[in-house]
Specification:
- By secondary structure, the chain is α/β, with parallel strands linked by helices.
- It has 20 helices and 13 strands.
- Helix 6 crosses helix 8, helix 16 crosses helix 19 and helix 17 runs parallel beside helix 20.
- The longest helix has 25 residues.
């Protein structure tokens, strides 16, 4: 940002002090009183130059003050340089904010970034905990896509294993009617019934034989398996649509069944895999300070880790990615540490591999399960959120203007749940509070949605359609105008920071702060009633705020209404 000013500062330091290689990092002061930009570069160079940082800062401030874009430059504290920019320079820079709201494909030739998330198990309903990987992963993918990266979004589906043998046996014994008409809940009930009978050794033997037949390609069991996968995914798609989640590739664990043995043989040949207890094959990871990892069980069976090794190999060969991100809960941290250590030991040419972990989720009232102790279904939480949002809309009466209560309730309710998660640091446990999530005050989806609707209302009344043109003859700004402009200018940086750190809450926090800045601007400055020159600027700032809020919200998978 402000590249010419950065270049000017570097030239000053080179000319005055002979500093050849330095990057002048500009920060945004926490308070408007300290200017539009600040840099601690003088303090960073003091030791190298053996000079008082204030002396370096004074030289820099004096020279920068002569730049045509600078209103004034001052030294603050132990050696900060604070810079106030001329109003028109600030406004001109807003063009970059507008550009940052448009997805631009700029990295077509680069290797892709793989983002794996959601990854449900077949024949089981999604629980509320599934929302974490699903929405965090989608937001990270959105951020990469928005900044022009070639992104491969992958749903690594749990569609293999002995549970399918058990489900097949349960269907044969107790299933009735047409399998294709059954729901996931009905399939789950059969699975539970099988486990209620698990003392029966005959059933267990049947289940093992059934899964073996599935692996061997038995036509009847394969047909059963495919139907169960379709039933499960069709129900999951409905939830994905409500959450604005879209994954391009569905790769079940079953896809890697014939891809594991070559890796096992490679690992044995390279002595990465060695014999363990009871005939198992293990990877000794003592040098990595990790416990040994089982690759093949004693009975010759593969495990999740074996399939993940095949997954890494397949993705490298198929896509040649620059990075592969796994958006999975923190409880799988050891698994990924072992996985990444093994593939390094195998000597593969690897992309950047990262476990994008997140904490556990709990409700403020402690209600994370049903009365019977079962995990709360995601579908039920979303339905409850919409019901609560509907009550909030009706409770506000005429204060909320909408032609479609149901659409607004869906937008608010789903948004409240999603934003309630994304607004928190993913590395910490997520505490979800219904009252906070549905509040029109504070860091919440309804507050963001209402602020966007307020900005759009101003534009409708002023009969502004689309973006309002930024003026080019502004010589002064009020404090709240300057603060709002400063907030808008941060958007490109924030999107980049959220993407690079894989931290969605960075963007959520920014949007909340931008809402606060706009509402302060709205409450303190006349917009439509302002004098013509001020009106043009203020309408342009209102339009750009609405654009940024909508763009940012959609990156977070939220939708914002034009009326509310």
């Amino acid at each position: 940002m402000f590249e010419p000013l950065q270049s000017k500062a570097q030239k000053i330091l080179r000319t005055e002090y002979g500093v050849k290689n330095v990057t002048v990092e500009w920060e945004r002061p926490a308070q408007a009183d300290f200017g539009d930009l600040a840099t601690p570069v003088a303090m960073q160079l003091a030791k190298e130059l053996k000079k008082n940082p204030k002396v370096i800062a004074e030289t820099l401030a004096e020279k920068l003050a002569k730049d045509s874009s600078v209103e004034k430059a001052e030294v603050a504290g132990p050696g900060y340089v604070n810079v106030w920019l001329k109003p028109q320079a600030l406004i001109d820079e807003l063009k970059k904010t507008r550009e940052a709201c448009t997805a631009r494909v700029t990295r077509k030739e680069e290797a892709p970034v793989i983002v794996e998330y959601s990854s449900p198990n077949i024949a089981k309903p999604l629980g509320i905990h599934h929302i974490l990987t699903t929405v965090i992963g989608q937001v990270i993918a959105n951020l990469y896509i928005h900044q022009g990266y070639n992104v491969k979004t992958v749903n690594h589906i749990g569609d293999w294993g002995t549970q399918f043998g058990k489900l097949y046996v349960a269907w044969k014994h107790w299933g009735k009617g047409d399998l294709g008409t059954k729901t996931v809940d009905e399939l789950l009930a059969l699975y539970v019934k099988f486990h209620d009978e698990e003392e029966n050794p005959v059933l267990e033997a049947e289940a093992r034989n059934a899964f073996r037949s599935l692996e061997e390609g038995d036509a009847d069991i394969r047909s059963f398996w495919k139907t169960v996968v379709n039933i499960s995914m069709n129900e999951i798609y409905v939830l994905y649509e409500r959450l604005h989640v879209h994954l391009a590739y569905e790769h079940g664990e079953s896809m890697y069944e014939n891809k594991m043995q070559p890796i096992v043989e490679e690992g044995k040949k390279k002595k990465v895999f060695t014999p363990g207890k009871d005939g198992a094959l293990i990877a000794d990871l003592e040098n990595e300070n990790l416990p040994p990892a089982i690759v093949i069980k004693g009975d010759g069976g593969t495990i999740y880790l074996t399939r993940d090794l095949a997954t890494v190999r397949y993705r490298i060969d198929e896509w040649h990615p620059q990075a592969s991100l796994y958006v999975v809960g923190q409880e799988q941290q050891l698994h990924f540490q072992q996985l990444f250590a093994i593939v390094k030991r195998l000597g593969w040419q690897l992309p950047h591999l990262e476990h994008v972990l997140f904490g556990r989720m709990r409700f403020a009232d402690g209600n994370m399960s049903t009365r019977k102790g079962k995990i709360l279904k995601l579908e039920h939480v979303l339905d409850e959120a919409v019901e609560r949002a509907r009550a909030v809309v009706k409770g506000h009466g005429e204060k909320i203007q909408t032609d479609d209560v149901e659409t607004l309730a869906e937008m608010m309710g789903i948004g409240a749940v999603v934003y309630g998660i994304l607004s928190q640091n993913r590395k910490m446990d997520i505490l979800f509070d219904w009252d906070k999530a549905l509040s029109f005050e504070g860091n919440s989806a309804p507050y963001l949605q209402y602020t966007h609707a307020r900005a759009k209302s101003v534009l409708r009344k002023a009969e502004v359609k689309g973006d309002s043109f930024l003026p080019n003859n502004i010589s002064s700004l009020s404090d709240v105008e300057r603060s709002l402009i400063g907030g808008l200018l941060q958007f490109p940086e924030v999107v980049s920071e959220a993407r690079e750190s894989h931290m969605p809450h960075v963007l959520a926090t920014y949007l909340y702060q931008l809402c606060q800045l706009f509402n302060s601007f709205y409450n303190n400055e006349p917009i439509i009633q302002a004098e013509e020159s001020q009106k043009t600027l203020r309408l342009a700032l209102t339009a750009l705020t609405a654009t940024v809020l909508k763009c940012g919200a959609e990156l977070l998978t939220l939708r914002v209404p034009d009326r509310m």
